[in-house]
Amino acid sequence: MKIFKVGDSQKAICESCQSIENTTFQLRDVPFSDESGTVKNVLVGVCDKCDEVVIIPQQSAPMINKQLCALRKPIESKVPAHFIDMLNNACAELGAKPDFSNALIKYYVHMLSNEAMPADKLKTYLKSNLAAGKSDKRISLKSSILRDEITTLRSKAHIKSTSGVIKAVVLKIHDDIQVHPQPNLINQLKGVVAAVS
């Protein structure tokens, strides 16, 4: 990937001018195409003739994605208080702090929705004794792809609600890490913990 600096120039097709024009890389505030927000102070190529943004270099993609994620509403789920305890205990077992629990849920949702873990028995967790209880605690998850993965998982596991998916995933985490420990999976997760801590 070529890295551009402020002041670098390059030829590009300008849609406004309908021609190939010289562009200069500058820091600009760029609105999203759906008008849901603006990326502040991002490096872009600007047409020297009409002053319109014509190039967004690959190096600016992470900053744009970060802004997109910040704009997305979190996925909220209400769970019984003991679910938080199960997540905290699973994190402790992996050598992680309790704030790793959201990453752990997202990891499981990703693996289950992409068939790296079997999802067919996920619904059975919702029939267990641990699934019961007043849902008075909140789990809030943010991710650019999580909503789509949960939708996929709902369909695969035949679970009607997003909260049901989150509950089933937490119960599976508890089962895999504490009730019937899966050594290979636990070692993988310990590797993830080591990479992000």
Explain this structure.
There is one protein chain. The chain is α+β, with helices and mostly antiparallel strands and 197 residues long. It folds into 2 domains: 9-71, Ubiquitin-like (UB roll), CATH 3.10.20; 75-196, no CATH class. It has 6 helices and 6 strands; from the N terminus they run ββββαβααβααα. It has helices at residues 61-71, 81-93, 101-113, 146-157, 162-179, 183-196; strands at residues 9-14, 19-31, 38-47, 53-55, 75-80, 135-141. It has a 4-stranded antiparallel beta sheet with strand order 1-2-3-4. Helix 2 packs across helix 5. The protein is elongated. 24% of the residues are buried.
**Number of strand elements:** 6
Measured distance between first and last alpha carbons: 28 Å
Radius of gyration: 22 Å
What is the structural class? alpha+beta
How would you state the average pLDDT, rounded? 91
The count of domains is: 2
Major β-sheet profile: 4 strands, antiparallel
Unreliable spans are none
Nutshell version of this structure?
By secondary structure, this protein is α+β, with helices and mostly antiparallel strands. The chain has helices at residues 61-71, 81-93, 101-113, 146-157, 162-179, 183-196; strands spanning 9-14, 19-31, 38-47, 53-55, 75-80, 135-141. Strands 1-2-3-4 form a 4-stranded antiparallel beta sheet.
